[in-house]
Design a protein that fits this description.
- With 307 residues, this protein is of the alpha+beta class.
- It has helices spanning 5-15, 19-28, 33-42, 45-51, 80-83, 86-99, 106-111, 121-132, 178-195, 207-223, 228-246, 261-272, 297-304, and strands at residues 58-66, 69-77, 137-145, 149-156, 163-164, 166-173, 252-253, 256-260, 277-285.
- The longest helix is centred in the C-terminal third of the chain and has 19 residues, at 228-246.
- A hairpin with a 2-residue loop joins strand 1 and strand 2.
- The protein is elongated and about 80 Å long.
């Protein structure tokens, strides 16, 4: 039978389910909207849609690697309780495995085949929403590849192998011993998790960020009553300090704070057996940038009691 676009649209507005799921439901129920709603509910699809408005800021960061490439994924849940669930952890682990076979773009990951099923990653997450009972989202993914080099990884707050609250990838290129280069890369990844650099090198910093810092430093100096000639020198000095605090290669290495990361790499060349170059890093912090809803528990209880 033919299902009109208007009918599909009406069902989608009533349930929030996906367009193709709505069309399938209508075909299965002979075009009966109420029966189609029940069909979607039995499949867990309408239930999943109703949860889609909830904030998902908990969850896990997953990492997967193979050869000279590695990926990070962030899959969010509504509660930390779910993040400790074995089923959810397995979901995140397999999403990371699937992402490793893509270019790392979020749309590519969502469309990738989910291991062991005939569904995509996006479809599998919808299935998991229905069974786990919380809104789940694949928020982001990042991939790093270093041909002829290694990608080291570090997971902080690890709850299971390759799963935790902070994930870091660091790309290292060297003609020396790959295993030793990887060990050094892991130390740098731990440093990134702790020191939160904004960029690999000064040239990589966002020009808007640098301009804002300069404006703040200049205004601070003017308020102190310094003459313009002195202000320029003060701004330059504060910018140098900003670079030391914000640029990975310029930061004091957490493993040996007496030297910068750049110097530490230089010092390790003899042990690794050749020049060492950091080519990039990726860091995900769980829930970073997600606007979390603040709830007043007392008010909710009062409302439930009819007060």
């Amino acid at each position: 039978m033919t299902i009109s676009a208007a009918t599909v649209k009406e069902l989608r507005e009533k349930t929030g389910a996906g367009m193709m799921d709505c069309k399938t439901a209508l075909v299965e129920t002979g075009g009966d909207i109420e029966a189609a709603i029940d069909w979607l509910r039995t499949k867990g699809l309408a239930k999943a849609a109703k949860k889609a408005g909830r904030v998902a800021a908990e969850g896990l960061i997953g990492v997967a690697s193979a050869g000279s490439a590695a990926v990070l994924v962030e899959v969010n849940s509504e509660t930390d309780f779910v993040a400790r669930n074995d089923q959810f952890q397995e979901l995140v682990r397999k999403v990371a495995d699937a992402a490793l076979k893509t270019d790392g773009a979020i749309l590519s990951v969502r469309a990738a085949p989910f291991p062991g099923t005939d569904r995509t990653v996006g479809q599998e997450i919808q299935e998991a929403i229905a069974t786990i009972g919380e809104n789940l989202t694949l928020r982001r993914a990042g991939r790093l590849e270093v041909p002829g080099g290694v990608v080291a990884s570090y997971v902080h707050g690890q709850v299971a192998p390759g799963l935790g609250k902070i994930g870091v990838l660091v790309g290292v290129k060297s003609p020396g011993d790959a295993e030793k280069a990887g060990q050094l890369g892991r130390q740098v990844a731990m440093h990134v998790a702790a020191a939160s650099p904004l960029a690999l090198k000064v040239a990589d910093l966002d020009p808007d960020v640098v301009a804002r810092e300069k404006a703040i430093y200049a205004e601070e100096a003017r308020e102190s009553g310094k003459p313009e000639g002195i202000i320029d020198k003060m701004v330059e000095g504060k910018l140098r300090k900003f670079y030391q605090e914000s640029v990975l290669l310029s930061q004091a290495f957490v493993v040996d704070p007496d030297v910068s990361v750049e110097t530490a790499l230089k010092n390790a060349e003899g042990d690794v057996g050749g020049p060492i170059e950091l080519v990039g890093f990726v860091v995900f912090r769980l829930g970073e940038g997600v606007e979390r809803q603040e709830t007043d528990f007392a008010a909710e209880v009062a409302a439930a009691a009819g007060k």
